[in-house]
Amino acid sequence: MEETLMLTQQWDKTFPKSDRVVHSKVTFHNRYGITLAADLYQPKTAADRLAAIAVCGPFGAVKEQAAGLYAQTMAEKGFLTLAFDPSFTGESGGHPRYMASPDINTEDFQAAVDFLSVQDNVDPEKIGIIGICGWGGMALNAAALDTRIRATVASTMYDMARVNANGYFDAEDSADARYEKKLALNAQRVRDYKSGSYALGGGVVDPLSEDAPFFVRDYHDYYKTARGYHPRSLNSNGGWNVIGCMSFMNQPILNYINEIRSAVLIIHGERAHSCYFSRDAYARMVKDNPCTDNKELMIIPGAVHTDLYDQKEVIPFDKMAEFFRGAMR
């Protein structure tokens, strides 16, 4: 039985509501028994069973932010779409709150495919997924596991296992550096257990220091301003638990992406600090993969990381729609 969730019925997104789609709130469950909250977007003119797309991300965001914008826009282009909150975050269930898991979060995508597969107005042979930021890596991981996924888009992706284990730009990729992280995280576990609660790691830094790196400023411009702030977003507020992402350190998520046979489109901004994740994931995905004709890396000139969160003139929605239609024929 699904947990009863308290879902906000008012429109509380960071983007305006479209008059070309029908929006509703739904719930579904994953195989761990966690109930997930989602926004369902359907084109008003739809008559037959539709191709469907599940959308999630960025990592630490909620469905009222970038995922919802992607979902609503793709619904305007004729797809039935589902933007969901991951386990332990947003309006979704799961306790304790603000934890992340390479396993459970991959499962969240598969659970979304479960839900879409049994809808009367969805063609179960035409289901795709979109993962944004850290959920781009999770989407690739799901595509490597779930043969029902016909097409995958990873937008401005992070490999959360790599960044947790190696630090940004692999600057902490050593046994000693990882050991120091593990010492700190395990000490935090003891403190949390004693206190009976989990300490938060803090969301995006606010206020910014004068010497804040560009990518921190980039995140601040989205999560901490009217552009993208949301009261349920971890990044906009207190962040993940300090130990929330610990398991990513020794549970890599992209080991088998060169066995993905279905179509994949990876999109990234040329000026994004995170672009190396996409370039390396694409190279890994096509290496020794017999199915490369349906794989593509698209680099957007001049774009930074958060441009692909909400800048509709930058996000290649027409290209994405063409990609999904072609892959789901």
Topology summary:
Blueprint: E1 21-29, E2 35-43, E3 50-56, H1 66-76, E4 80-84, H2 102-117, E5 122-132, H3 134-145, E6 151-155, H4 160-166, H5 175-195, H6 214-223, E7 263-269, H7 275-286, E8 295-300, H8 307-310, H9 317-327
Parallel strand pairs: 3-4, 3-5, 5-6, 6-7, 7-8
Antiparallel strand pairs: 1-2, 2-4
In short:
This protein has 329 residues and is an alpha/beta fold. Helix content is 32%, strand content 18%.
CATH domain topology of the domain at 21-159 and 253-327? Rossmann fold
Based on secondary structure, the structural category is alpha/beta
Morphology: globular
Helix content: 25-40%
CATH homologous superfamily of the domain at 21-159 and 253-327? Answer: Alpha/Beta hydrolase fold, catalytic domain
Could you explain how this protein is built, in words?
The chain is α/β, with parallel strands linked by helices and 329 residues long. The protein has helices at residues 66-76, 102-117, 134-145, 160-166, 175-195, 214-223, 275-286, 307-310, 317-327; strands at residues 21-29, 35-43, 50-56, 80-84, 122-132, 151-155, 263-269, 295-300. An 8-stranded mixed sheet has the order 1-2-4-3-5-6-7-8, sandwiched between helices. α2 crosses α3. The model has no long low-confidence stretch (mean pLDDT 97).
